Amino acid sequence: MRYAETRPPVFTLTAGPVDAYPEVLRALGRTVLYDYDPAFQAFYESVALKAQKAMGTDTPPLILQGEPVLALEGAAASLIAKEDVVLNLASGVYGKGFGYWAARYAKKVEEIEVPYDSAIDPEKVRAFLKEHPEVRVVCVCNHDTPSGTLNDIEAIGAIVAEAGALMIVDAVSSWGGMPTSPAASQAGIYVTGPNKCLGCPPALSLVAVSDAAWDKIEANPDAPFASMLSYSDWKNAWKKTEPFPFTPSVAEINGLDAALDRYLEEGPEAVWARHALTAKVCREGIKAMGVQLWPVTEDIASPTTTSVRMPDGIDAGPILAEARARYGISMSAGRAETLGKLIRIGHMGPTAQPAYALLAVAALGGALRAAGAEVDVAAGLAAAQAAWDAAIDG
Question: Beta partners for 63?
Fold first, then answer.
């Protein structure tokens, strides 16, 4: 039996979009209220305040009506002024990509770039800022999903703050799945979304903006307004007494409400631990099977995505297709420079459960074996099971 491409996979274990929690799916089916109905305005305010609690911010985060690419491009457009020198930190495809947005608005974009299986050294950022005190904005991706690698945004954020600059953080696929926050990273703008670790469909962005960043945005004559990219338009929209700039995604706000309830009720620390354990189980299985992880060191491997380096002479594309056709399991390819070189297994939201890690190890190992790779699937599964049992018994 093989699974046809025209049929949905049995399990989606990708790095996003991810499957949604059942509570979220039920919430998406709630009544769609008129956005100016007082019941919806009060509800929207309650969701914004719930997001504030979850993110640990002093004021409610912006809820932008589009998946986080909208918020990331809006961050560049809003915060970066024509006279600004920007330092972009590129440790992967998404980090590199932000530099292109920054270049649209900045006077000049400088860059520190490392191989895409590595992470940014905070001390190199310190040295660069010491030599270039003109830098006003630093941009960094916390979890560069196409590589499955993490940058230490707390260490980098402290250095940026000490230099008197503002930092834009892409935390789209990290927040909610590991201990990271706007406050801990001292971010000027911290962009995430509910479509990864909160287990929602891709439709909204959550953005924390510091007081200093608001001051810079409001002083920037080129910051967008009356625009989908505008931060200012949504600054006070969380208040039930304020109008919306345009119609919010009512059904998606319903879903976000359910996702935040679930996150807060389970408890952030428990959610983070669940993501970390799933990644641990998966990585132990991959290594024991005889396949290498993509990150150059495991201490920069993300708890929300396991990236697996393909054996010599094997392209990731046919392996992904075989895993789906043979076992009904969908996983993610790389992007741009990492395309074909690795396979990404997502541990986000509903799939941040150790049982899914065993499925991923079995499917990836079986597909590699079918392609002629020398892998020991049984050893991989045994190691994954042992890592899970150790956590239970420990």
Answer: 206
Task: Quickly list DSSP for 92-157.
Answer: SHHHHHHHHHHHHH-SEEEEEE--TTS---HHHHHHHHHH-TTEEEEEEESEETTTTEE--HHHHH
Considering the domain boundaries, does residue 5 fall inside one?
Answer: no
Q: How far apart are CA 149 and CA 299, in angstroms?
A: 9
Domains of the chain: total = 2
Pairing mode, strands 135-141 and 85-90: parallel
Boundary residue ending a domain (264, 284, 315): 264
> Are 98 and 191 found together in one domain?
yes
Residues 35 and 95 placed together within one structural domain of the fold: yes
**What does the pLDDT read at residue 57?**
98
Same domain for 311 and 332, yes or no, is yes
**pLDDT at position 394 over 90:** no
What b/e readout covers 247-284, taking b as 16+ CB neighbours within 10 angstroms? ebbbbbbbbbbbbbbbbeeeebeebbbbbbbbbbbbbb
Residue span of the structural domain in which 299 resides: 267-393
Query: Do 326 and 378 share a domain, yes or no?
Result: yes
pTM for the model stands at: 0.97
Look up residue 279 and give its two tokens: 């990644």
Encode pLDDT of 233-284 as tens digits: 999 999 999 999 999 999 999 999 999 999 999 999 999 999 999 999 999 9
Write the pLDDT tens digit of every residue in 108-141: 999 999 999 999 999 999 999 999 999 999 999 9
Q: How many CB atoms lie within 10 A of CB 21?
A: 19
280 in Cβ contact with 71 (< 8 Å): no
The band of 86, judged by pLDDT with boundaries at 50, 70 and 90, is very high
Last residue of a domain, one of 214, 231, 264: 264
